Amino acid sequence: MVDTIKPGSVPISRRDSFNTRDTRTRNLKPFHSGDIKILLLENVSAMAVDILKKAGYQVEFHTKALDKDTLIEKIKDVHAVGLRSKSKLTEEVLSHANKLLTIGCFCIGTNQVDLNYAASRGICVFNSPFSNSRSVAELIIAEVILLARQLGDRSREMHNGVWNKVSKACYEIRGKTLGIIGYGHIGTQLGVLAESLGMHVIWYDILPVMPIGMSRAAGSLDEVLAEADFVSCHVPETPETKNMIGERELALMKPGSYLINASRGTVVDIDALAAALNSGHLAGAAVDVYPSEPLANGPGFESPLRNCPNTLLTPHIGGSTEEAQRMIGIEVATSIVKYINSGASVNAVNFAECDLRAIPSTDLTTVRIVNVHQNVPGVLRQINNILADYNVNKQISDSKGDVAYFMADVTVNDPKEINTIYEQVTAIQENIITRVLF
Description:
Layout: E1 10-12, E2 16-18, E3 37-40, H1 46-54, E4 58-61, H2 68-75, E5 80-83, H3 91-94, E6 102-105, H4 115-120, E7 124-126, H5 133-148, H6 151-159, E8 177-181, H7 185-196, E9 200-204, E10 216-217, H8 221-227, E11 230-233, H9 247-252, E12 257-261, H10 270-278, E13 282-287, E14 311-313, H11 322-342, E15 366-374, H12 379-387, E16 391-400, E17 403-411, H13 415-426, E18 431-437
Parallel strand pairs: 3-4, 3-5, 5-6, 6-7, 8-9, 8-11, 9-10, 11-12, 12-13, 13-14
Antiparallel strand pairs: 1-2, 15-17, 15-18, 16-17
Helix pairs in contact: 1-11, 5-7
Region (Disordered): 1-24
Pathway: Amino-acid biosynthesis; L-serine biosynthesis; L-serine from 3-phospho-D-glycerate: step 1/3
Organism: Coemansia pectinata
């Protein structure tokens, strides 16, 4: 708790002091930006590192994930963490995060973070759900062609010194049907690319979606499985999608068809898939994600799919292109900077999305109150009662689940008034975290 407000310091809960004063642009930015510590893991894009350093933050960069004990020790003193898919921010780990304001997932998925617990601690989580869509779609197209021509097996044979020139069960993809399960950003791009190569495209999604090109929506998952020559999965990891492709669904697929999974490792029953490949019911498969994945590069990967016929196994590289990582780095790092500096939660995963327009450059007496509180009746009324004695220029509030988010720009005449507002808001029983930004 900050007891007094001195010129050049602004309080936030969790015992930190920030301030912003940029009389030229009036952008909200921490005055002592070097006090803000960022922990980046898993070799996130150099573009992200550059953006965060240019914001004036202290950036600690690691090329790999950290073990749990090290991560717990590191997270105690940082204001933001950036990670990809291997680091696990569980309730146990996050319970040691005394200063953490935000988490940036430099990837599509966020299942590596306990989102509900993070929200309950006032920690806003961002990701980049669309930046690698093209990279994943291109990988799927490559795998469709590789599977149709059995190129994985031919390449392995050649490396082993075996010349095996065959054409049996090798096909063009022109005229074949691609079935897409999950017609979102990746699925729609994949469909466009497939049609450009002469494929027919059908898809199934639980949400009503506008078809693109000549693609056709199927009435059910079973319809896609029964009709498609190639089936590609693009769904999130949820209880409903766990093992959604199991023994029954594989049996519904056409004999000699192919399955591709670059979504989440829990979507496909790996043992059932291996059985379908070894029996010859499926002509091939390409898998980029697994129920359990190694924490670091190197030997030790085990899977029933190893050595299955015409089976392409890749180490979760669907979005691993220079272009995708650069775009992800820009998007997530920018979200982190905006949230820390101005409170903007647009594109947040576990928070309501709120933002306020910029404060005019000539206005040097307005501060921004940023508050996270439990989503229960009466809290907003308490906050507004506190602000009633001041000139509130604009405000916004919204909620998501058990947590509500509030922002307001308030004009003050005396720095002591900032301290008064801060202490009164943080004294609200349901308060989670409060920040005051200049």
